[in-house]
Amino acid sequence: MFNSAAQAATGSGDGKAIFDKNCSVCHSIMPPPKNAPPITPLASRYHQKFTTKKDGVNHLVAYLKAPEKNKAIDPQAITRFGIMPALKLPDSELRTVAEWVWDQYNPNMGMGRGMGMGQGRGMNQ
Ligand code: HEC
Q1: The domain spanning residue 76 has which CATH number?
Q2: Is 90 a pocket residue for ligand 1 (Cβ < 6 Å)?
Q3: pTM more than 0.90
Q4: Which of 20, 37, 69, 120 is most buried by a 10 A CB count?
Q5: How many separate domains does the chain show?
Q6: What share of the chain in percent tops pLDDT 70?
């Protein structure tokens, strides 16, 4: 299938589809949380801790594969929600979704995200 409508400039359409399928059971994008911390504040933490997307995404992928308390960006989240289960997704999908998570950072958090960018929400199956 050729899903060009959902491919934003960064290609985040794919990441969003992977998120909807594999992550959204536990994670909301914006607060309030479901069974895990929402993605937008997590993305902010990643941007605080890592200066380059490459480093941030590498850490994300490693964490998604094998969550460990001493690697967590937010150890308090583990106290509150329990540790995240390891995800059995192919590396390429983990990387795509990790890049999408990184891109959810919004310096004006609370003011809405990517409005007016025609993200085609919910159009990927
Ligand atoms: C079964 C529920 C569940 C699913 C499914 C799940 N998560 Fe999580 N996730 C959690 C919980 C609980 C935490 C908080 C505790 C922790 O950090 O381990 C968490 C933490 C995280 C963190 C913070 C990691 C860090 O460095 O501390 C990120 C990023 C994340 N999840 C992304 C994802 C993505 C992306 C997916 C899908 C590919 C996903 N999660 C699927 C439950 C889930």
Answers
A1: 1.10.760.10
A2: no
A3: no
A4: 37
A5: 1
A6: 76
